[in-house]
Amino acid sequence: MTQPIRLLIVDDHFLAREGVKEILENQREFVIVGEASNGIQAIEKTKELLPDLILMDISMPKMNGFDATKKIKSEYPNIKIVMMTVSYDITDWFEALKRGAQGYLLKNLKTEDLLNGLKAYSLDEIPMSKEMAFRIWKEFKKDGQGKQTLSVREQEVLQLVAKGCSNKEISKQLSITENTVKTHMKNILGKLQLDNRVQLASYAFDNGIV
Q1: Nearest alpha carbon to residue 56 among 7, 122, 91
Q2: Where are the extended beta strands (E) located within 38-192?
Q3: Could you give the maximum distance between any two Cα atoms of the chain, in Å?
Q4: What is the Cα–Cα distance from 57 to 112, expressed in whole angstroms?
Q5: Burial 42-66, CB ≥16 within 10 A → b, else e
Q6: Which CA distances in Å does 77 have to 50, 66, 196?
Q7: Closest Cα partner for 87 from 79, 96, 100?
Q8: How far apart are CA 60 and CA 70, in angstroms?
Q9: What is this structure's pTM?
Q10: What is the DSSP string of 106-137?
Q11: For every one of its 210 residues, what pLDDT tens digit does the chain have, with 9 covering 90 and above?
């Protein structure tokens, strides 16, 4: 049986944390291991609990979600962080990704959409359109200096990521297992010094790979 995703909730509003807990309490895929009310507590709880996924608010006292995300990702790059906020500001969305977050969800989402989003982010299976990837490319401009060269297979995987393919779709197109795809993804991220597949797509556009 697959182990549930260990989730840390970070939000300075008690009712917001309670709302998320209520939504997830009957979901076998998730288990809430802790809560925090600001960025400093989020860092402390992360060190203590080592969750798989952190649901992080942006606007909080003492330390905001952006700064907490950057600090956590620098020490625990494998922990996934999803920002959750009421903000529709696209600059917040880009800033979250720059700090290393895997995704961005709005607090006013329907319960079903919130659950689907969390499940998808936890599995790193977020399809992305070429249009969105291009918009992100304009925000993330990386020069690629000091980054290792990708193998032919890794470049093939990168091309498919930029086209919005999930790991499952990539495995079918390249006739390899999903575990192999995940291994390639990990190696690509390491070589390019990037944090997530959104940044990978922007890198691909920036360097003419797609």
Answers
A1: 7
A2: 53-56, 80-85, 103-106
A3: 50
A4: 19
A5: bbebbeeeebbbbbbbbebeeebbb
A6: 11, 15, 10
A7: 96
A8: 15
A9: 0.60
A10: ETTS-HHHHHHHHHHHHTT-----HHHHHHHH
A11: 478 889 999 998 888 888 888 888 778 888 899 999 999 999 999 999 999 899 998 888 889 988 999 999 988 988 888 888 776 666 677 777 778 887 777 777 777 777 877 877 777 665 444 444 555 555 554 444 445 577 888 888 888 888 888 889 999 999 999 999 989 888 888 878 787 777 787 777 777 666
d(CA 196, CA 165): 14
In angstroms, the CA 80 to CA 69 distance is 10
Q: Are 45 and 8 in contact (CB under 8 A)?
A: yes
**Domain architecture of the chain: domains with CATH:** 5-122 (3.40.50.2300), 130-206 (1.10.10.10)
Instruction: Provide the token pair at 174.
Output: 């390249």
Per DSSP, the three-state class of 182 is helix
CA 121 – CA 104 distance, rounded (Å): 9
> What is d(CA 48, CA 88) in angstroms, rounded to the nearest whole number?
32
6 with 52: CB under 8 angstroms? yes
Question: CA 13 to CA 31: how far, in whole Å?
Answer: 20
